[in-house]
Specification:
By secondary structure, the protein is mainly alpha-helical. The chain has helices at about 10-45, 60-70.
């Protein structure tokens, strides 16, 4: 359904269809936002470095420490 049509000339069924379509778009966008927020949280948690270790971010020690957290021995 073209978006540029005047809403006052739409029939009842066309308005219902338009509302349904817009609701579906909102639901999809909310789901995408939730997924992006979850990805952001998991990325932040994976890269979070405790401050008291004193290891410079991106250093060899930092990367090894991250690997140890992700793949603990044993």
């Amino acid at each position: 359904m073209p978006v540029d049509r005047d809403a006052s000339v739409l029939s009842h069924s066309e308005l219902v269809a338009l509302v349904h379509q817009l609701r579906q778009q909102v639901i999809q966008q909310e789901q995408e936002i939730a997924q992006l927020k979850e990805q952001q949280k998991s990325t932040a948690a994976a890269t979070e470095q405790p401050m008291d270790e004193g290891i410079p971010p991106g250093s060899r020690e930092d990367l090894l420490a991250q690997l140890d957290k992700m793949y603990p021995e044993g």
